[in-house]
Amino acid sequence: MLLSRRPPAWRHTSRLAGRVAARYASSSKGAATPDAPTPEAPPRRPLTAPPPSLVKRPTPSDQPLPGLRRALGVRERPTVERQSRKERLEHIMLNPEGVQKERQHLLRRAGKSYYEDMINTRHHGGKTWVAPRQAIREDKALFFPNITGKSLLGNQRHTTTMCFGRVTVLSLLSTRISEIHSARLTQPTLAAFSAHPLFQHVQINLQQNLLKSFLVSLFTNSIKKTVPTEQHDNYLVSSQNMEYLQQPIGMDNEKVGYVYLIDENLKIRWAAGGEPEDAEIEALQACTGVLLRRWERDPKSEQYRKQIEAPPSAA
């Protein structure tokens, strides 16, 4: 019986090499024809360019802040009378425009988290807009809403009666950083006009959280030590709910301070919020001087001047 003889391994190797060479030759001939498209190699990234994972993405802090593009305030003239819940519901439900505003308000509140204001302080220190360089025109300006609070002397006061007839720089405070913002912004203006009889500075320590409001009321004596004695009657501690007034007055972040320049007719003529810029400090002083000069030339100002300068016994 004859055994089958296997071909040597070199024969298989030579056959395989011949097939590979023939296939390579046919492909090279096809690539040499002008009609066949040649595949393009992908572009290589320069060796000096950093990888995409290390490229810094733009953040809100890198974007410049927009200027204030609208008049702040409410359209209705404020009063000291408090609107009841029934009257407010009737005003909303019986007015189509009120229903639309209520819907927009609920959507804004639903989309805002509890820590959003604190997180936004990482970008521009919580500042969301830049104050204008000039005062808002009187015919375009809106009214500052009424805020009720208790002064350091224990009197219940309203901003509507306090600010009427005088040019007022009003500071809304809620945190320690807001006090720093307000002090830096208003210091040059107070140094220039604090002695003027038709000028005043009103500070409102606004604590909408009931627990924080209770704690602030416990430390009223400590606040008295930091506020000058002549300003005790103009420093209010308030727990008023500003839920429906924050957006009209431009109070976008509760953690920063806001300063409003209010004329004798309770209209907001200028406003700023957050860490003040040098241009904003100069603008507040300039706008305050303009409003005071205009109010002095008005014959009606003489009546308010006499009431302010009259001693308490004569009143």
TrEMBL record:
Residues 73-84 have a biased composition (Basic and acidic residues). Transmembrane segments: none annotated. Residues 1-84 are annotated as: Disordered. GO terms for biological process: mitochondrial proton-transporting ATP synthase complex assembly. Residues 36-53 have a biased composition (Pro residues). One of its GO terms (cellular component) is mitochondrial inner membrane. This is ATP10 protein-domain-containing protein. It comes from Schizophyllum amplum.
